[in-house]
Amino acid sequence: MDPAGRRFFISGLVQGVFFRASTAQQATRLGLRGWARNLADGRVEVLALGPAEALATLEAWLHQGPPSARVSEVREARVVAADLAGLTDFRTG
Question: Rounded to two decimals, what is the model's pTM?
């Protein structure tokens, strides 16, 4: 089965609470590739590539996040193939 890619924007109290590092741990545990980064507007953006079941598990986790986070919204956005090129592991930025 070919891997799929998904992009998420997470809002709420998601910066300064280890959201990116915790997301990277979850994604790595699930065998996903991609990245998580803070945005200037206070959201976290996550791009993940891997099996659909693992992506669904990550998405469910993003709605909660790590213990100190307070997630108010998770929105999915379009992914284009060029965004997924060269992903070899999961990183934070």
Answer: 0.94
Give domain limits for the chain: 4-87
For residue 71, the surrounding DSSP H or E stretch is: strand 70-77
CATH architecture of 4-87: 2-Layer Sandwich (3.30)
Q: How many residues does the chain have?
A: 93
Distance (Å, whole) CA 50 – CA 54? 7
Interval 12-33: pLDDT, tens: 999 999 999 999 999 999 999 9
Residues involved in catalysis: 20, 38
Spatial neighbors of 50 by CB under 8 A, at least 6 apart, are 3, 4, 27, 30, 31, 32, 33, 34
Helix (H) or strand (E) holding 29: helix 19-29
Distances (CA, A) of 73 to 13, 14, 31, 38, 86: 10, 10, 24, 15, 29
